[in-house]
Amino acid sequence: MDEKAKILIVDDEPRNLDFFDVMLDKLGFEVARAENGIIALEMVVEFKPDLILLDNVMPKLSGWQVTRLLKQDPEYSEYKDISIIMFSAMDDVRDKIEGFELGVDDYITKPFNFSEVIARIRAVLKNREIYKQNLVKERRFDQIESFSDSVLSFLNQLREPLEQILSRSTPDVAMDDSTADFCSFVSTEAEKAVVSLDEFREEISRLTENEIESNRNGNFLKELDQRIHKHFVKSEDPDGE
Questions:
Q1: pLDDT at position 17, please?
Q2: How far apart are CA 79 and CA 77, in angstroms?
Q3: How many domains does the chain have?
Q4: Cα 45 to chain center, whole Å?
Q5: Domain span holding position 56
Q6: pTM of the full predicted structure?
Q7: What is the DSSP secondary-structure string of 128-163?
Q8: Are 142 and 218 in the same domain?
Q9: Of 153, 157, 185, 207, which is most buried with the most CB atoms under 10 A?
Q10: CA 185 distance to own-chain centroid
Q11: pLDDT over threshold 50, residue 68
């Protein structure tokens, strides 16, 4: 991560707050602290942490209650993707399952080993970063698909009048030579345009499919521009003719 990860520590025991504040700051994290669940919710809005170290058993609001509000309350929908590591003195499997079902990313039982906590913090932050990267990719792919669908729809709309031109521009024996030549020219150019549209449409479909299936961050717009020039932009004569 290029920027310091922001960690909010929530615990009603001052010594735990002091310990984590000092140790995490030394490890390069940006740290904020809260003594109870109500202050924690205020700090989430103000500090916007990447990760919350959240004690479960606290006065006013428990860790579960804080988690439920962050993950389910519309008022905090902006913060529902913040990662949470829950601390608890209880080592009951049902408690852990409830925490995971609420949206907790990890669960550590007190007393804890600090090295283990750091390892879990880094693992959760790494997973958060991967999730954010995948989310960006998904949004990009959605944009590509939407743009591709719009281009294909536009090409189909262009094809319809060209087909009309083709059906009505066939030279007739009753025409004079000049009119017949013009109709023949129009028919030939319209047919070329239809062929180019069909080829371009197939290339757009393949390009979109390859971009998404390969899961790569390719140059979709650059490749699209190259295909537009290939089919529709006439090359300039180097001799100026």
A1: 92
A2: 5
A3: 2
A4: 23
A5: 6-112
A6: 0.62
A7: HHHHHHHHHHHHHHHHHHHHHHHHHHHHHHHHHHHH
A8: yes
A9: 207
A10: 49
A11: yes
Residue 182, H or E segment: helix 177-213
Same domain, 228 and 156: yes
Tell me: do 142 and 212 sit in the same domain: yes
CA angle 44, 45, 50 (to 5 degrees): 45
Cβ neighbours of residue 104 under 8 Å, at least 6 residues apart? 67, 84, 85, 86
Q: How confident is the model at residue 241 (pLDDT cuts 50, 70, 90)?
A: very low
Residue 186 and residue 90 share a domain: no
State the Cα–Cα distance between residues 237 and 234, nearest whole angstrom: 9
CATH number at residue 51: 3.40.50.2300
Is 120 part of any domain? no
Q: Give the Å distances, CA to CA, from 133 to 19, 46, 126, 199, 219.
A: 32, 24, 11, 34, 17
Q: Which residue has the tokens 């942490």?
A: 49
Task: List all residues 6 or more positions away from 168 whose beta carbon is below 8 Å from its beta carbon.
Answer: none
Question: Does the residue 124 lie in any domain?
Answer: no
Averaged pLDDT of the chain: 83
Spatial separation of the C-alpha atoms in residues 72 and 146, rounded to whole Å = 30
Question: Following CA atoms 119, 134, 70, 118 in sequence, which dihedral angle do they give, to the nearest 10 degrees?
Answer: 10
Any idea which residue has 């007190």 for tokens?
110
User: Is 70 found in the same domain as 13?
Assistant: yes
Cβ distance 84 to 54 under 8 Å? yes
Does the residue 1 lie in any domain? no
Residues 6+ apart with CB under 8 A from 102: 64, 67, 68, 71
Is residue 13 included in any domain, yes or no? yes
Residue 75 has φ and ψ, to the nearest 5°, of: -60, -30
